[in-house]
Fold this protein.
Amino acid sequence: MTGRPAAADVERIFREEYGRAVAVLIRAFGDIDLAEDAVQDAFTVALARWPATGVPPGPAGWIITTARNRAIDRLRREATRGERHAEAIRLLSRDEAPEEDAVGDDRLRLIFTCCHPALVGPAQVALTLRLLGGLTTAEIARAFLVAEPTLAQRLVRAKAKIRDAAIPYRVPDAGELPQRLRAVLAVVYLIFNEGYSASGGDRLVREDLCAEAIRLARMLAELMPGDPEAKGLLALLLLSDSRRAARVDGAGDIVPLAEQDRALWDQDLIAEGQALMRQCLRINRPGPYQIQAAIQAVHADARTYAGTDWAQILQLYDQLLMVAPGPFVALNRAVALAEVRGPLPALQEVERLHLPQYHLYHAIRADLLRRLGRIDEAVAACDAAIATAGNAAERRFLERRRQELRS
């Protein structure tokens, strides 16, 4: 980065490095709250110093070292906590400066810690998104379509459960992996989703989260080489990420799938994802991530939007709805249904769902109403989509669509 960074630049660097720093500090101190507070303290110091001094050569190492020192200072001040005071002195005496490449698989350990069977599913995912992704409570609440205070209570209870149950911070033994793997896969999937279409902020894509999710998915596929869903998840992420360069234009505005320049799609990622799908087919134990990856593979095979095999995609969504039923799957299926059978049956399917807080529900409904010529209703649905969209790029796209409808 050239010149002096603005506050927004410092915030971006911290969002990118937050999960790495928190994971390292949890390993060092065994305390989630302390780790989060220390990284936040480091952020405050960076906001005060970096605009004047510039970003240090190794910002991740600087964040970890500063946060570690802040944590040690805090523990030393807590004189009533004798054991932790002694631990702080011991840590301080080790002249150790963590480097960027010294984290190993700390973040994978953190995911497995958060995905312990003692925690309920939504809490597992929410806590991991908070710790690894550095997402705010408000952003996670939007992703889960729940009120922010409700989500905050989930996070508090999950951290307390980890502390009170003394859940170990490690990758489980081989015999423990299967009972945690499904939750871990779900977490990695949602980390990628937050990167692929950010629930807040100015940009559609958070490249740091996409890259981190793919890195973790690769590690999981290596850790569980015989599990087809681990391969399927990695294939899904690679095939989805292959379109990244075509999804936004030079101004950061959304380019819908029908208008994307497919020459920009990353053919190496597509080839790797399709190779993983062939491995899954040989194992022949289909699951939801494999089916979603198969849907993305059909898109990748099409030279044009019009040339997409929508009938095959609809059939795959039918299979997905059987193995992983839910309103979000049904909503995506309706998009394929509109391409195969027209907008009216698709709209009928959409209106059976109830997702008033989900902006894509309103956006898809608006498009189907437009195609049916019901313009006033389409404008109202577009207004609802704008009101519920948390991402500025998505709001700009929807506002342009609303203007087109009105004109």
User: Anything to note?
Assistant: The chain has four domains: 7-101, 105-224, 225-303, 333-407. Residues 368 and 404 are 15 Å apart (CA to CA). The radius of gyration is 23 Å. Residues 93-104 have pLDDT under 50 and may be disordered.
